[in-house]
Amino acid sequence: MKITQNSIGKNEIVLHSRSLSLRLPALMLLFLVAQGSLLGCLQTRGGVKEADEKQQIRKQVQNLQQTTADVNSRFNDIDEEFRKTYGRVEQIDVRLTQIKERAEKNDFALEAKVKEQDQKLAAYREELTKLASDLAEMRGQLEAARQALLSGATAAAGAATSGGAAAPAKNSYELALSKFEAKAWRDAILAFEDYRKTYPRGKNIIPATYRIGLCFQELGMNDEAKAFFEEVIQKAPKSKEAGFSKTRLKELSAKKKG
What we know:
By secondary structure, the chain is an all-alpha fold. The chain has a domain at 116-157 and 168-257: Tetratricopeptide repeat domain (Serine Threonine Protein Phosphatase 5, Tetratricopeptide repeat, Alpha Horseshoe), CATH 1.25.40.10. It has helices spanning 5-162, 168-181, 185-198, 205-218, 222-235, 240-257. Mean pLDDT is 77; it is low at 152-169.
């Protein structure tokens, strides 16, 4: 049997083809396995990445929820603090209103009291003006009476020289004393004062001074009365009128304090 070069080549080609045909499924299977592994690996990596992303998203959501809860809690604390502060402000406002009302009432009471005191002061001033006017009138009358008595005394002295009249000193003091006993206080003051000026060294000068003080006291002119009582104590400290004057001064002082 003659084997030719061509036949050998053909056989090799056939064998090569058969070998290739046998290897091709294995290669395909290997390719498929490799492709499946690669896809599985890719799927595994994609799943891991997706799981990581989901985990991060969950953490972010949890952090956001916690932050929201903290903010809500802080907001509630601030709201509660605001309510407490507002409540204190309302209490302070109520107290301020009460204080204002009390102050207004006190102002009204004080204003009424000041008005009352002003009225009393005006009445006192009017009374003082009246007393000053009365005193000026009394002084004028006293001066007129003194001049008249001086004229009368001169005339009486002339008559005494020619015919012998009674002594005027006794008569003028007794006249003043009679007015004092009759409680004609103003006339008594004028008469006693005229006696004092006419007879500054007369024996009844201290009693006359003391009784002038009594007349002023009876008229409610205590300051004038005090001046005459002090004059008695100064000029005749050992006299009975001085003792009486001290008692009167104590009474005046007690009234002034009361």
